[in-house]
Amino acid sequence: MAAMGLLMGSYHRIWYPDSGHPGTPNAEEAAEIRETMRDRDEAMLEKLRSKLKEVESESPWTLVRSEHHIEREKTKLLERIRRLEHEVSILSAA
Questions:
Q1: Alpha-carbon span 32 to 37, nearest angstrom
Q2: 46 is a domain residue
Q3: Of 1, 47, 80, 85, which has the fewest Cβ atoms less than 10 A away?
Q4: Is residue 63 part of a domain?
């Protein structure tokens, strides 16, 4: 356990040398991290929206792609899109 703690501490000192506490990024790094996360989430949103359009255009044709299956997939995609939109709005506001 102690060795693991030392390894983690040294890892954070390498990546965040100017931070006051190990693992705590300074203000510039935090802004860069937020921007990277926002960009990643926006890219994922575009992917999910295109997948949702694709699923909405499908019609049920077999047992595997039944109407229930398509509706369930649409519901999951809409929920993920809603969550990501919320995260992006938080990251944009910060």
A1: 9
A2: yes
A3: 1
A4: yes
Spatial contact of 75 and 52, defined as CB atoms under 8 Å apart: no
Q: Is 56 within a domain?
A: yes
Residue with tokens 């575009």: 46
Predicted pLDDT at 87 = 92
β strands within the chain, DSSP E = none
The sign of the CA dihedral 23, 26, 27, 30 is negative
Tokens at 40, concatenated: 């990643």
Q: What is the pLDDT of residue 4?
A: 67
- Give the pTM: 0.66
pLDDT, tens only, 14-40: 666 666 666 677 888 888 988 999 999
